Amino acid sequence: MIVELGHFALVLAALVAIVQMIVPMVGASRQWSGWMAAAVPAATIQFLLVSASFAALTYAFVVSDFSLRLVVMNSHTAKPMLYKISGVWGNHEGSMLLWVLILALFGACAAWFGGNLKPSLKARVLAVQASVSVAFYAFILFTSNPFLRLATPPMNGEDLNPLLQDPGLAFHPPFLYLGYVGLSMAFSFAVAALIEGKVDAAWGRWVRPWTLAAWLFLTIGIGLGSWWAYYELGWGGFWFWDPVENASFMPWLLAAALLHSAIVVEKREALKSWTILLAIMAFGFSLIGTFLVRSGVITSVHAFANDPERGVFILLILAVFMGGALTLFAARANVMQAKGVFAMVSRESALVANNVLLAVSAFVVFVGTVWPLVAEIAFDRKLSVGAPFFNAAFTPFMVALTAILPIGAMLPWKRGNLGRAMQPLWGVLALSVAFGALVWVMQTGGAMLAPVGLALATWVTLGALVDFWSRTGRGDISSRLRRLRNLPGADWGKTTAHIGLAVTVFGISGLMAWESEDIRVAQIGERFEHAGYEIELRDVRDVQGPNYVSTTATMAVYRNGDEIALLHPEKRVYPVAGMPTSEAGIDSGFLRDVYLVIGDAQADGGYAVRTYIRPFANWIWAGCIIMGIGGVFSLTDRRYRVAAGARKRRAPVAGVPAE
């Protein structure tokens, strides 16, 4: 009964979304206040209904209701409760229900907290958001219904993909979807502004927190996915340029560009066309990622390889929304004339350079991701585009981006002087180059990746701190420290996020330059040396898990004769799914990870053992965490709340409708 109620609630949510799509849009075009006001209760009701539907599906997974086809295919009674719950979205149908739930959530948040929006713009934003929901409701109900029953329920289920039975992957998809779908709000604001015929500084202020929230969730989701790939797949890497990884990385790059571009719209009313285009394309790339993951056109360890018919439906959604938005963009070009002019040397120009580098790097990733598909369709050739291409094509843009960040932050708006902007940065530049040279000398030459990475990370970090300190003005230390505490949240957030980027850049460059690997067959009781560490394989035993059988090794790590860690790498086999996975044993440190993987038993009685020394691995995810904290700081900027409150307190003038 609960499952049927969930299905019914989903159908009702789709009907409410249709009302929300049509009524407020008509009301805004006719200036009927009652029709425009209908958007708020409609958004609230839609969210409550789809929440009830999602709760019903979750209940079916929790109680192992094997009369439901989706539960049979993605659950098992022996599975731990965490993975029963994560199984709700660990499949195509359930993940699409999560998608529409988050769509409804963002629409409801815009309805609840959009008191500072002009009523007609708010109505159009919620109507556009509902139109996206309607498309995905249709996709779910007609091609991907999660509530299908089985005539003859089995006694047990087929279990969830073992690779997804991990805490990192349990929380990775919801955060990614909050980012993907969060960009729909930027899209809705862009399309609503084009229909409204007005793109101004206020619009730039309104769109920034939504984009920032989406970027923040994408950062967390990508970081969790990278961390999972590092310790779960047993390959020791943090990023493999997998198509699914790229599908989340491209919107992240465009969201970062949109954040910086919206600042120019807000501060100077310039770059209006470019910012609107970025808002459209950022969500467009989220839809492209959805198509790549769910159409079956790519192969990935964490793709939903479904039938092509579903891919065609998503492609149709992409064509309708992107084609419609870009057509509207072309038709409304006259309303996006920039008011602010700026010189070649100015903060605006630096932000334009920032946008170009981020957008082109996203395009490079896109080309590398889809080119094998294009080559197979157009030229009947099977190609593989791997890490060498992406590293060679993508890295120069990131080097250029980090190089200009501190300079751009120090330049004034409208017109600047490069020499004056560099004046407080010369010492930072000298110190950064000195650090890079020192590392190059200490590693006795060799690859330049680590020295360049350290120099750029130092440059960005110290440059961000110099810019932050310069915002306290002049005076003695105590007065500047008092002003420091009162700086806006956006300033704290920008500085923190840039430092997080620097930490991640150095972590990546250090790991890639200095990592070492050893593969051998080790006997029980044997001790071997690698990169200054001694590893001893003490024991290997079979362990019965909740829903798997594990071959678990006990391995000791020694440094200078002293035992520093006792690790237990595993090789698991999930009998129901018939699939093996690796669980690495990792001794994590501030400067390095010792990473051990146990393999198959060999004919001579030994075991295949892989040993990796990963310098600065944790710095990669520490940088992601710091960037996320920067996003939280920026979201707490009181100027967003002050703007909302000011509009609410404004007294209406008799005879003049409130805006």
Mind sketching the topology for me?
Elements: H1 2-30, H2 33-37, H3 39-62, H4 69-74, H5 81-86, H6 92-113, H7 119-143, H8 167-196, H9 201-232, H10 243-268, H11 272-294, H12 308-331, H13 347-379, H14 387-410, H15 418-422, H16 426-442, H17 449-470, H18 477-485, H19 489-514, E1 516-522, E2 527-530, E3 533-544, E4 549-559, E5 562-567, E6 570-574, E7 579-583, E8 585-588, E9 592-601, E10 607-615, H20 617-635, H21 638-649
Antiparallel strand pairs: 1-10, 2-3, 3-4, 4-5, 4-6, 6-7, 8-9, 9-10
Function: Required for the biogenesis of c-type cytochromes. Possible subunit of a heme lyase.
Domain Cytochrome c-type biogenesis protein CcmF C-terminal: 315-638
Organism: Tropicimonas aquimaris
Summarize the structure.
InterPro entries: CcmF_C, Cyt_c_assembly, Cyt_c_biogenesis, Cyt_c_biogenesis_CcmF. Its main location: membrane. With 659 residues, the chain is of the alpha+beta class.
What does this structure look like?
Strands 2, 3, 4, 5, 6 and 7 form a 6-stranded antiparallel sheet that branches. By secondary structure, the protein is of the alpha+beta class. The chain has helices at 2-30, 33-37, 39-62, 69-74, 81-86, 92-113, 119-143, 167-196, 201-232, 243-268, 272-294, 308-331, 347-379, 387-410, 418-422, 426-442, 449-470, 477-485, 489-514, 617-635, 638-649; strands spanning 516-522, 527-530, 533-544, 549-559, 562-567, 570-574, 579-583, 585-588, 592-601, 607-615. Residues 642-659 have low confidence and may be disordered.
